[in-house]
Design goal:
By secondary structure, the protein is α/β, with parallel strands linked by helices. The protein has a 6-stranded parallel sheet, sandwiched between helices. Bound molecules: adenosine monophosphate (AMP). Adenosine monophosphate binds next to helix 2 and strand 5.
């Protein structure tokens, strides 16, 4: 397992045996699950894991069960060789790139029973039916296989890491979830594999999302939530945008708030379509 020369593994049995050997010699395991088409945002998670663990495992698997939109699944880029080359630049030791049958030996048609306190029902959960059932299913399966000490996820998918933290707590998994900040392009657009599908013009225009989030942060103590949201909706309404939602939520419960008073953790969240690509982003407005 030389740094700079990742070992690419396709089967659960091989991965489990390598991890067991590493653990027996007292090594710590950091795990970063991804769907590939890696960019700097993903690499920041790898770097965080590298800094805190002896072995970093990155999985690359486009999980069919979390796609509510078949077209999105079909269009999801698959670039394993380029991904492995990128992972080598940061010294990831193990890359796990399984097939569907390795991940779902008994079929995909099952649900992980875990109490998520309704945090999966709002926002992305409301707009993408079945998405989080699929996410919980695959992350549960991957954690069962990898059994890492630390799991690294991005703040970019705010609701996703909140749900996975609930799953870890609820099932009492001995894993620490580490949430890493959002990596952005120069003009503020949150990095995403989907950005590659934007035209150059739309990619430039998409910085309106980050500007809008920042404007909410600037004025959170000066304007009412209603006024903040009305203005944000206006900012995000163009002939080339289709706004799915923009909201201000409590960062723990993910429920919409109507007043700033009494709130200790506020987050602005947004989902908007630009040029046929669905983009999500968020910004912590404050956390006491
Ligand atoms: P994905 O491959 O899109 O499923 O993402 C894999 C992991 O990378 C998830 O934990 C994401 O939240 C995280 N991630 C994706 N984009 C970014 C970003 N721009 N900054 C930080 N983390 C990210």
């Amino acid at each position: 397992m030389n740094s700079g020369n990742a070992q690419v593994i396709h089967t659960v049995s091989e991965l489990v045996s390598l991890i067991q050997t590493a653990k027996r010699s007292g090594k710590t395991i950091g795990f970063v699950p991804t769907m590939g088409a890696l960019h700097d945002g993903h690499l920041s998670l790898m770097r965080a894991s590298k800094a805190e663990n002896d072995i970093t495992v990155c999985s690359i698997y486009v999980n069919p069960t979390q796609f509510d939109n078949k077209d999105d699944l079909a269009k999801y880029p698959k670039t394993l060789d380029v991904d492995v080359a990128l992972l080598n630049t940061v010294g990831v030791e193990l890359v796990f790139a399984p097939s569907d049958t390795e991940m779902y030996p008994d079929g995909m048609d099952y649900v992980i029973n875990v109490d998520l306190d309704e945090v999966d029902k709002v926002l992305e959960g409301a707009h993408r039916p079945g998405h989080f059932e699929g996410v919980v299913q695959i992350v549960h399966r991957l954690l069962e296989v990898v059994q890492p000490h630390h799991l690294y996820m991005g703040q970019k998918d705010f609701q996703q890491f909140t749900i996975i933290q609930k799953m870890i707590d609820n099932l009492e998994m001995p894993i620490e979830l580490v949430v890493c900040p959002i990596a952005r392009e120069d003009h503020g657009l949150a990095r995403s594999s989907r950005n590659e599908r934007l035209s150059a013009e739309d990619r430039g225009r998409a910085c309106i999302i980050y500007h809008t989030l920042n404007e909410m942060k600037d004025d959170i103590h000066h304007l009412s939530i209603d006024n903040l949201l009305t203005r944000a909706e206006l900012r995000l309404s163009w002939s080339w945008t289709e706004l799915e939602y923009v909201d201000i939520i409590n960062g723990n419960t993910l429920t919409s708030v109507s007043k700033v008073d009494d709130q200790d953790y506020l987050v602005a969240v947004v989902a908007v379509w630009i040029g046929g690509v669905r983009l999500i982003d968020n910004l912590i407005l404050y956390k006491n």
